[in-house]
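Worked Example 4.2. Consider the chain below.
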Amino acid sequence: MALVKFDAVLATLGDSFNADAFAGALVCKCRLIANFGVGFNHIDIRAAAGKNITVTNTPGAVTDATADIAMTLILMAARRAGEGERLARSGQWQGWHPTQMLGTHIGGKMLGIIGMGRIGQAIARRAHFGFGMDIVFYNRSFIKDCGIPGARQLESISALMAQSDFISVNVPGSPENHHLIDAKVLSAAKPGQILVNTARGDVIDEAALIDALQAGKLAGVGLDVFENEPFIPDALRALDQVVLLPHLGTNALEVRIQMGLMAVDNIRAFFTGETPPNKVN
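Applying the procedure from the previous section yields the following structure tokens:
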């Protein structure tokens, strides 16, 4: 209905503009979908182009906030913070003792980054310069210099999984990346590995992830996104070594304001005859 009634739509992650939505808009008034966010896998950009609809997004605004949440998940999973917070609230805590809830230190450990774009590089900077982590990464295109001393680009995700103590997933949601992290990839995980995902939920095969956790292939997982949001499987919620956040990646007031202003800038540019600064199709 929005495609039929309005000249432009400011869309959010919860607004699905799939191929059927465009096919159903036989007489399409809309000329622009300005996405409120960097990820646009909920918009079929090819179908939009077929209707002569421009799609824009808001890159840059979300980079630091998402990187901060990735580091939050890494630290929470490594130090068992979610588990500890639940214990403190339960009233069952017996007090400090030397071997209580021992986690793992992240300094000097290897962080493997899957997807070395803006967010991946922001996480790498925080991890290396802030916490002394070594960096390896997988990226489909070659990156000559990511700005991190000693960082190495590996030839496959499986090689990254085999070498890394921690994994951070930062690829865009797309049909090509659907279940990029599947059972085969998870089977290559280094023993004791912790994996975090702040990208899109369906980049990871959630059923395979649950199997890997239950089999002890991973020491911990931190998730800010889920395959079928807002549904979170009971099996994930039941596992103490899993940290779950309700898609908080960009949930900072300053970031949301900047995202909104970027979306408005895209709309203003389009309707004044300029090329929108963040055109994606």
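The two ends are 22 Å apart (CA to CA). The domain at 63-244 is CATH 3.40.50.720 (Rossmann fold). Compare this with Example 4.1 before moving on.
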